[in-house]
Amino acid sequence: MNDTQLPDYPRLQTRLTRQFGLQTPLVLAPMALASGGALAAACALAGTLGLVGGGYGDLAWTQAQYALALQATHADNARARLGCGFIAWKLDEDASALDWVLDHPADEKPRAIMLSFGDPRPYAARIAAAGAALICQVQRLDQVPQTLEAGAQIVVAQGGEAGGHGMNSLNSRATISFVPELADWLAVHSPKTLLLAAGGIADGRTLAAALVLGADGALVGSRLWATQESLAAQGAKDLAVRTRGDGTVRSPVFDILRRKNWPEPYDFRAIRNRLHRQWEERIDALRTEPEAARADYDAGVKAGDFSRAHATVGEAVGLIHDIAPATDVIARMSADASHILEKTGRLAG
Hints:
- The protein is of the alpha/beta class.
- The chain has 16 helices and eleven strands.
- α2 packs parallel to α3, α3 (about 60-70) runs parallel beside α5 and α9 (about 205-210) packs across α16.
């Protein structure tokens, strides 16, 4: 497939699509251990920006998955739509995976690097030197000046609805109010900076809503997590299809069980299963004596038992009804959003 053979769905033109050569204003969230090379490549081939989930900065995993993405897009200009994402506070411990990704020949360098959950400024110069666009994710308005100081070309407004890591309930914002407020702020203080909405966006209606709220596009996690190319376990995907939006919860429980020492004020949204319910009212006790609960969790992971193992999705899980190829998900979201915007007379030109 080449650029003249991109999927045939209506084009939603925004500043994001024009600046990054995209068919539709969607970006794959770089979900750790789920957004692997096959998913990132599928998204890039479908005309979106596909970000490999470098996550915790594991060098061997990042090498294998980014190489897979490059291989899958070898005969196509889709390589210009590949990138990678990392957790900033983990890069503070070891940035070798970021350096490896950036140290590629010109035709294999990432189009963008996304940093979340920490200060992006220590890494900004090396990202800029590699010619990659810097994407910074924020959860509150007071984080934005730091990202602009780092030179972010794109800011992601992540609402508390999002799956996986985000700010806890005391500090997080709702996507529907955060996005337009940040859009207004950027219009005054940094009008050339692009804005993506994240959290709760999983179909054409929610993509259209993000654009109406003032975003240039959407960062999509949960819906693309539940695709055939995602590295998430099949049992977790199957559970997601059966789960409504009421069935997720944000807390530190699964981070404790997984031995992930996340700093305040971040915690983790996933499906609220039996093991989580056991401990969600006793978090201090879990922190103090986690061994038995961790053994139960580890056994659940080994057995593929998602009444104990975690399934990482957000509140948009209630909009997920199948495990389709990523191309099909992107086409449906784009076509439905285009139809809605045309019907309301708001289609971007």
